[in-house]
Specification:
about 450 residues; mainly alpha; 2 domains; 21 helices; about 75% helix; globular
Length: about 450
């Protein structure tokens, strides 16, 4: 090719490249996809706006029914809207404000009659007649236990059982004593303030605990849930603040901390501290494994129902222990265990806030909830969490463990479930402790709930 022809070809090619670069990007479909990827919770922004318009029209036409499709739309929209408000608040979003708002805002809306009566009635009917609550409990508890690493579960028990157990006993005693001295009464302080703090959060703690109280005492679950929820939230907040303070102490006195290790590495703790409770096993899982794990959760729940009729132990608690036994005995295949982790993650991400919204509307009386926020309650909660952590630090040091780390693990026993664990460990800058935090929250909470319900059953 002649030189001038080559030059002309290069020139034309350069002009085309410059033209392509200077041309504006097409809105459809890439620009639209970027809009679709804007989310409120899990809801794409355009879908969110369509939902708002649809539900507004259906409400005005009196067509809000309690069927599953309509209620899924209502609860997802309400739950994630309230949660998004809480998550965007400065400071408060670090202490689980999303869960607080998803529960408290709908309760207040119902109390002040700001939510349409048709929507309230449909949510109440749906929550009551579909057992939506129990589906959530089965999936979240069984999936979370089956998804844990077995060796971490076994070794974690051996590492934290003593400081966690003794800390719980000391916190129960001190908290009950403080509440009694403040005029709350030993019965109320123990069962409705101290125990909820150490019950394991909302999904694994406050909900099963309130169900157990309702079954044993024969009163509405919503009344009990309204009483046990504030100590869960305030206990988690106290644990976050105290754990942040321990991080500061650890920087001033480095001999008190392993910076995320429970005990010196020569004792074998170094590797274990870096094990993740939630290994990423989801990529190679087929749909049948996930569906099978979901059915396994339902079967374990039904076994829990049977045990409830036989021995009186609430089904969610019985189910949790059946899941622990299945995990430790390797009774469930690795394929189903991996599927259980996916079920847990799906339910945790997609169902928690809609469930809390439903609970706020149908099971949480606003006036009784507000009555629980008193100075005496706050002092009792702080005393309980402080004793739990201080005892863990003291016992940990006696056992040649790092006192700051054992105190933080004990703090997770008073946290707001998984959300509380993340907030506590983030404040403490000890995210390596997550496996032990999970054990403290789930297993420690389950033991607390079970023992307390057995005691209440005996003396009720």
């Amino acid at each position: 090719m002649p030189e001038n022809s080559q030059t002309q070809a290069v020139s034309c090619s350069g002009e085309r490249e410059m033209t392509d670069l200077s041309a504006p990007a097409s809105f459809w479909p890439t620009g639209w996809w970027r809009v679709m990827d804007l989310k409120i919770g899990i809801i794409s922004l355009p879908i969110y706006l369509i939902l708002v318009a649809l539900l507004t029209v259906l409400t005005m036409e009196g067509e809000i029914k309690s069927d599953a499709p309509t209620m899924i739309a209502v609860l997802v929209l309400g739950g994630f809207t309230c949660a998004e408000i809480g998550k965007r608040l400065p400071v408060l979003h670090h202490i689980g404000a999303g869960a607080i708002f998803a529960t408290f805002i709908p309760s207040a809306l119902v109390y002040y009659q700001l939510l349409p009566a048709s929507i309230v009635k449909s949510i109440v009917d749906f929550t009551k007649f579909t057992n939506f609550l129990y589906i959530y409990i089965a999936a979240i508890i069984v999936g979370s236990i089956l998804g844990m690493d077995r060796q971490v579960l076994i070794k974690g028990f051996l590492k934290i059982f003593v400081p966690l157990g003794l800390g719980s006993i000391a916190a129960g005693a001190v908290g009950t004593l403080v509440g009694t001295l403040l005029g709350l009464g030993a019965y109320k302080t123990f069962f409705f303030i101290v125990v909820p703090i150490m019950a394991g959060g909302v999904g694994e703690g406050a909900i099963p605990l309130s169900i157990g109280y309702a079954a044993i005492l024969g009163q509405p679950q919503g009344d009990f849930f309204a009483q046990v929820l504030p100590p869960v939230m305030l206990g988690s907040l106290t644990a976050i603040v105290l754990s942040g303070m321990l991080n500061f102490v650890g920087k001033k006195y480095p001999h008190l901390t392993g910076e995320g290790r429970l005990q010196p590495s020569e004792s074998g703790e170094g590797d274990l501290a870096n094990v993740s409770t939630h290994d990423d096993k989801t990529s190679a899982i087929d749909i049948t494994s996930i569906a099978g794990a979901g059915l396994t959760a339902i079967v374990l729940y039904l076994l829990g129902v049977m045990l409830f009729h036989l021995i009186g132990l609430p089904a969610p608690v019985a189910m949790l222990f059946l899941a622990v036994v299945a995990k430790l005995s390797s009774a469930v295949s690795p394929r189903l265990q991996s599927g259980g982790l996916v079920v847990y993650r799906f339910v945790q991400v997609g169902m928690t806030y809609p469930l809390l919204f439903a609970i706020g509307v149908s099971l949480t009386p606003w006036n009784k909830l507000m009555a629980a926020f008193t100075i005496a309650n706050l002092i009792t909660i702080v005393a309980t969490v402080f004793t739990l952590m201080a005892t863990g630090a003291f016992i940990g040091r006696l056992m040649s463990m790092y006192p700051i780390e054992t105190a933080i693990v004990n703090a997770c026993h008073s946290g707001q479930g998984g959300t509380g664990d993340v907030a506590i460990l983030t404040a403490a800058n000890r995210m390596q402790l997550m496996p032990f935090a999970q054990i403290a929250t789930r297993i420690g909470g389950a033991i607390t709930v079970t023992l307390v319900l057995v005691i209440l059953k005996w003396f009720a």
